[in-house]
Design brief:
alpha/beta; Alkaline Phosphatase, subunit A; Alpha-Beta Plaits; 2 domains; eight-stranded mixed β-sheet; six-stranded mixed β-sheet; 13 helices; globular
């Protein structure tokens, strides 16, 4: 194969994993919650086999699916973006990244304040929209950072763009990233700029930036780049992999922007990997528990997918998957949910069929590497031989 387009629909889970209760998640199912709204229109993914996946009972089943498909279990001990993407790229994380349900310890905040010259507000797990509502006015008065976390392994820093310049916010996050290593090595430090006023309300902007923990060596993007092929990142991919293993990258302002970028790359001539993250499913709809909005976003992706498939060449493969769940119908928390994820594989040379339930997301990396004929050490098992049509 010449090109693999690996598209991650961030947080698109398809049902609780057996160990969900140990992660605080019971009877969670992102797909089911979206389907229940009556606003989910995904004919292209249904035709590919989405409704035929093991355990999926909320969608029609295709009589003759157009793609190869599988339900994937997460083998890593986590349900966050970083660990999920690392596993997709070939690494299983046996230990969870550190989380801070009581806020960050004094040693972390003191080091951050000393490094940046500003104090901190909040230091609690918080919703990103609610934290700027509750602390935005005080931030404008004092110039202190709004520091918060979530159930995920994240250190988030919010600042008003007119109070603190974006570059100062980004530099503060770089300093936090340098501090948060070792036992405090959170998966991501996230810059969360916002605008507005106490009178009109505060809103987050599209200038978010993630500063990720350095990933393990030898993941899929590394292998593709080292083989001399194009290794392209779209959206958060550059941040998730700390900029490593990519020959080119572009950020997204929205899902629509990311889909436009992906289409642009598909129309270009290259050989290699295009690794895409579409984050609005998670950030805009999942965490905000907006099931109807999530369903509409999936419908918009599906409509785009129909046109995207038409521009692919005979030696191209597209893999559509997710990195964790974030059930918009789950009222217990606003956090990610421990779920199976779908895998849909489409292309002119892909033989349709059910690949069953597989034990790790890392099977994607093993398969992509084999399709691109690049060496990769991973515990994942390739299914390339099962999905390629015989000449």
């Amino acid at each position: 194969m010449n090109r693999v387009f690996l598209i991650v629909l961030d947080s698109f889970g398809i049902g609780q994993m057996p160990d969900g209760p140990s992660f605080g998640d019971v009877n969670v199912n992102t797909l089911r919650s979206c389907a229940a709204t009556g606003q989910l229109r995904v004919p292209n993914m249904i035709a590919a086999g989405l409704g035929n996946l093991d355990g999926v009972d909320c969608l029609p089943k295709a009589d003759a699916p157009a793609g190869a498909f599988a339900r994937l279990a997460e083998a890593s001990m986590g349900k966050d973006t970083t660990i999920g993407h690392w596993e997709i790229a070939g690494h299983i994380s046996p230990d969870p990244l550190p989380t801070y349900p009581q806020g960050f310890p004094g040693e972390v905040l003191e080091a951050f304040e000393a490094a940046t010259g500003r104090g901190c507000l909040c230091n609690k797990p918080y919703s990103g929209t609610e934290v700027i509502r509750d602390y935005g006015a005080e931030h404008l008065k004092t110039g202190k950072w709004i520091v918060y976390t979530s159930a995920d392994s994240v250190f988030q820093v919010a600042a008003h763009q007119e109070k603190i310049p974006l570059e100062e916010l980004y530099e503060a996050c770089r300093k936090a990233r340098a501090i948060l290593q070792g036992r405090h090595g959170v998966g991501r430090v996230i810059a969360r700029p916002f605008v507005g006023s106490p009178e009109t309300g505060f809103t987050r902007t599209a200038n978010r930036h993630d500063f990720s923990l350095e990933p393990p060596a030898g993941l899929l993007p590394d292998a593709v780049k080292e083989a001399g092929l194009a290794s392209i990142g779209v959206g958060k991919i550059h941040d998730i992999f700390a900029g490593r293993g990519l020959t080119e990258y572009v950020y997204n302002k929205s899902n629509a922007d990311g889909m436009d970028h992906t289409m642009d790359f598909a129309r270009r001539d290259f050989r290699g990997l295009c690794f895409v993250n579409l984050v609005d499913f998670d950030m805009v709809y999942g965490h905000r528990r907006d099931a109807a909005g999530y369903a509409r976003a999936l419908s918009e992706f599906d409509a785009w997918l129909g046109g995207f498939l038409k521009v692919l060449g005979p030696e191209d493969v597209v893999m559509i998957t997710a990195d964790h769940g974030c059930d918009p119908g789950y009222a217990a928390t606003t956090d990610h949910t421990r779920e199976y994820v779908p895998l849909l594989v489409l292309g002119q040379k892909v033989r349709p069929g059910n690949l069953g339930t597989r034990g790790t997301f890392a099977d994607i990396a093993a398969t992509a590497a084999e399709l691109l004929r690049v060496p990769l050490g991973t515990p994942g098992r390739s299914f390339a031989g099962q999905i390629l049509r015989k000449p």
